[in-house]
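Entry 14. Structure prediction run on the chain below.
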Amino acid sequence: MSATSAMLATALVVVAAGVIVMHRLDGPSAAAATTTTSTTPPTTSVAPTTTTTTTPSGDLPQTRALPAATTAGLTGRMTALLRAIATDDPAAGYGSFFPLAAYLQTKAGYGNASDWHYRLIGHFSEDVATYHRELGPGASQARLAGYSVNDSQAVWVLPGSEGNKGPYWRVYYTTLDYAIGQRRGSITINTMISWRGEWYVVHLIGFNS
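Output returned:
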């Protein structure tokens, strides 16, 4: 085998091994499927999730799919959320938040775009700052250690509730675990709701009405 062929073979093995590791980290065991599920992703940062479609998820119609407690997309969103909190930069976590286009399909009435921008995102920014202060010294070094979604308590919310015209799954009190050096801690996400079989943050600390 030539030196070039050996290098290519080695590269293929490394890529294949990476796929296997990520699969193991992202997938809960079958026995835990009906209970609260947690995952422990690698300590290195997770790259943003890519997609092969040019249509944003929020522009597509809602589905009845109950989100899994652990997905590659959710791991990416939890990583982005923790990055926002660690750096006190709310914009870094916008990808974890319920999409504007989906919100417009969900809420009845008028002025929902302004409500999303000024009320929901405004409160999200305040909550990110609050959690950043709670992380304390070394906050910027925080890394994702896992998360747990209480999926067995998820509720299908029908149109007509809470001023909504569209349905979604809702789950309370998701736990995001982090590590700063040898110190471990957790953050509680008050409310997440679904869009097309994926969980998104909508209220971080509370409802902030």
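The helical segments are 3-26, 72-87, 100-106, 112-135.
Filed with the rest of this week's runs.
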